[in-house]
Design goal:
heterodimer, A: about 300 residues, mainly alpha, Ferritin, two-stranded antiparallel sheet, 8 helices, globular, B: about 180 residues, about 0% strand
Chain lengths: ~300, ~180
């Protein structure tokens, strides 16, 4: 440190001592003369120069230890009509996967198995339709189950139904009932997804095509709802109708042929699996694909 | 995580052309509501009368929601042609009423599906799409009320008849 710098530091120290313990109120403001104000200001600037002089580095950035990681830019992935159609196809393959797994495991029999086979056939037709539309728009069809929905909904749900020794999950008590409950939720979400896509699709002709498939998914859900709750096909919850027509329970049933007034975009809860020691069963909340579940075109390269 | 944005240049609010289509849809919804009310008043429904009342309430809600979209352009009156054409089928006989309602709801599904493709504004398209999802479910509920089996009469539950789809091409009142 040079002599001049040392003198500046001493002057700054004196000013600091002069203001220590002071009440920074009106009294101080009136007693702080203009001359002392300039002295303090000058000393502050000089102290800044002193710090700069002490630094031996030529870097102009803020001092730090180590190297900062390289910033990864977010991928600009717009939700195009192609991305929406690819995601729809992937969702159809999620449903196909479930119905094929259920059939392979022999979890359904009789009329339920007959209906499940019909629903499987419908989903295969829907997957072909959305894949064809994707290609007509110049995109590449995605003919696999949606990986995110598969990992967060489908695989955990099937494990809860069939059991998983490795995870210590026991087989559910009534596999057929659980499969129907899962199918009801899955079909409801499938219909909701196409409904949600309507205002997102740029091409109005595609909107009609989307809801044309969505209404068929809704019919699947309604058929299952009518089997699960045949005594009350249409929910009265949320309706302004006479008390004599209202349901007498305080809680809505898990399934109806017609559960709401408008197509819902809300999560659909489904209770699955064997009860825990406390008697509690697992609830999965199925939701329509979010931005993180979309099958963007750039994912093909990963 | 991705930086995503929706790509659509469609208007949000209904355009003048949309408003005419939505006004027609509101008149239809009010006519359908009144048809269910006539049937319930005549004694139809049996053990499922609450379902018919609930479906009537749904169509009333559709009419109100369309009002909120198009404001003063909403006719607030039922389509007399739709009502007159179907009134005789909505009587005291539960099965006959359920089958008539089933056919009517199927035609609504087909007409509203087409309407979704015609609307320019996304708010109107989204509203009609949410109606289509439930009208399709109405079809299933009404088939069950009519005593049909999803195993023996599967297509009655799951398929929109070609006749209903053809109606949408020639009928403007059920828009």
């Amino acid at each position: 440190m040079s002599n001049s710098n040392r003198e500046e530091l001493q002057a700054f120290s004196q000013i600091v001592k002069a203001t220590q313990g002071a009440d920074f109120g009106p009294a101080l403001q009136s007693s702080l003369s203009r001359r002392r104000f300039f002295i303090a200001g000058g000393a502050t600037i000089s102290f800044g120069a002193l710090l700069a002089a002490c630094g031996g580095s030529t870097k102009t950035g803020i001092a730090r230890l180590g190297e900062a990681p390289t910033k990864t830019e977010l991928i600009d992935a717009p939700v195009t009509d192609i991305a929406l159609l690819r995601t729809a196809t992937s969702l159809e393959h999620n449903a196909i996967f479930v119905y094929e797994a259920v059939a392979a495991a022999g979890l359904l029999s009789g009329d339920a198995a007959t209906l499940a086979a019909r629903f499987l056939s419908d989903h295969q037709a829907h997957a072909e339709a959305t894949a064809s539309l994707t290609e007509k728009l110049g995109g590449k069809a995605y003919n696999e189950p949606n990986p995110r929905l598969q990992s967060i909904y489908i695989e955990p749900a099937l494990r809860l139904i069939t059991g998983d020794d490795a995870s210590g999950i026991p087989v559910t008590e009534d596999p057929a009932a659980d499969v129907l409950a899962l199918a009801y939720a899955l079909e409801t979400i499938a219909g909701s997804t196409y409904q949600v896509y309507v205002p997102l699709l740029a091409d109005s002709a595609l909107r009609a095509a989307a809801i044309g498939i969505g209404e068929q998914e809704a019919r699947h859900a309604a058929v299952i709802g009518s089997l699960l709750n045949p005594s009350r096909l249409v929910s009265s919850f949320g309706l302004s109708i006479a008390a004599g027509y209202q349901e007498t329970t305080d809680v809505a049933a898990p399934a109806y042929a017609v559960p709401t007034t408008f197509g819902t975009k809300a999560p659909v809860p489904v209770v699955l699996g064997a009860p825990s020691e406390a008697g509690i069963r697992t609830t999965l909340n199925l939701e329509t694909p979010s931005l993180n579940s979309m099958v963007y075109e750039y994912l093909d390269g990963e | 995580m991705t930086a995503s944005k929706i790509i659509s240049e469609s208007p949000v609010r209904p355009t003048p052309a949309d408003t005419k289509l939505l006004a027609s849809a509101q008149s239809t919804a009010l006519a359908v509501r009144d048809l269910y009310q006539v049937a319930v008043g005549a004694g139809a429904g049996g053990e499922h009368v609450a379902c018919l009342v609930s479906i009537a309430a749904h169509h009333d809600a559709y009419a109100q929601s369309i009002s909120s979209l198009i404001g003063r352009a909403a006719p607030q009156a039922r389509d007399s042609e739709v009502f007159s054409a179907n009134e005789a089928d909505f009587g005291s006989d539960t099965m006959a009423t359920a089958l008539a309602a089933h056919a009517l709801e199927n035609s609504l599904v087909a007409a509203h599906t087409e309407l979704v493709g015609m609307l320019e504004g996304t708010e109107g398209a989204a509203l009609i799409a949410s109606m289509v999802i439930i009208e399709a479910r109405h079809v299933v509920a009404l088939a069950a009320i009519a005593g049909k089996s999803p195993i023996d009469d599967t297509d009655l539950f799951l398929v929109t008849p070609e006749a209903a789809q053809a109606d949408t091409l020639t009928t403007t009142t059920v828009a």
